[in-house]
Design brief:
single chain, alpha+beta, Nucleotidyltransferase, domain 5, six-stranded mixed beta sheet, three-stranded antiparallel beta sheet, 9 helices, 16% strand
């Protein structure tokens, strides 16, 4: 497992990673002890108009990004940076799909659905409220007012993780108070550095794993791949192959169609 941790935050034109675009990104590189090594922030020209409701949230206007470069200009560097790092975000279920789709649109491989990630929301759900502003204030006394940019949010997430590890190490048991490389590999790989696709808090039975970024398939605790939407929701996909075949020609994300193809091939392959 990589020893480098990469804190990140995005500002976007909306909340749909398949159709909306990134307008700002920020990365903070950390070593295994959470010591900051470097920062990188860019405004991005999304190639589409930024909705007023998005501007009201993050303060970024069309004129602010008019002279900025598109995401594709930075995509090769971002792909390498992400691929070599454990990712850190506050609610990575939002940020990671956006990065994946933007990278793929730029001709890059994108992120694996199970890329290892630390999510301070997951940690905070054990102990308190999960919104970033109140969480930062609770641990540091700092107040977040008005618009919050990507770099400010990424830096706040780093502060929250440091404080969480310091204050709740015993309560979380497997979370160390310092993150040496050995500790990352042996103690928190399964508990805190979770594959980004796992969401154990979502099901009373203990969780599931998404199969695709489009979140149309998931693998339950029983190991069976099931549909996550439509008339066959929560039923085994292998029992509805005609429906899965229909998905191949419908307007789904390419990684969802790839998952559908793999399911069809696996279900129809002769078994020894």
């Amino acid at each position: 497992m990589a020893s480098r941790i990469l804190a990140l935050d995005l500002e976007t034109t909306g909340r749909n990673p398949e159709s909306d675009r990134i307008v700002e990104f920020a990365f903070i590189e950390l070593d295994e002890r959470l010591k900051e090594l470097g920062r990188w922030r860019e405004l991005i020209n999304p190639g589409v108009q930024i909705p007023s409701e998005a501007t009201a949230f993050h303060g970024i206007r069309d004129q602010d990004v008019l002279e900025s470069r598109p995401f594709s200009h930075f995509a090769p560097r971002i792909q390498k940076l992400l691929s070599d790092s454990i990712l850190l975000a506050h609610n990575h279920q939002f940020d990671l799909p956006f990065l994946h789709y933007e990278l793929v649109r730029s001709g890059q491989p994108g992120l694996r659905v199970d890329h290892p990630a630390i999510d301070t929301v997951t940690i905070e759900r054990f102990v308190n409220s999960h919104k970033l502003g109140p969480t930062l204030g609770r641990y540091t006394g700092k107040v977040v007012d008005g618009w919050h940019g990507a770099m400010e949010d990424a830096a706040a997430t780093v502060e929250v993780l440091r404080a969480q590890l310091q204050e709740h190490g015993e309560k979380l048991q497997s979370v160390p108070t310092n993150l040496t490389h050995k500790v990352i590999d042996m103690r928190i790989q399964d508990e805190i550095v979770r594959p980004s696709v796992r969401h154990p808090e979502l099901l009373p039975s203990g969780g599931f794993e998404w199969i695709d970024w489009g979140r149309k398939f998931y693998r339950g605790q029983d190991g069976v791949v099931k549909l996550a939407f439509g008339k066959h929701k929560d039923q085994p996909a292998a029992e509805h192959l005609d429906y899965v075949e229909w998905m191949l020609n419908a307007e789904f994300a390419e990684d969802t169609r790839q998952a559908a193809r793999a399911l069809i091939e696996s279900s129809r392959s002769p078994r020894s």
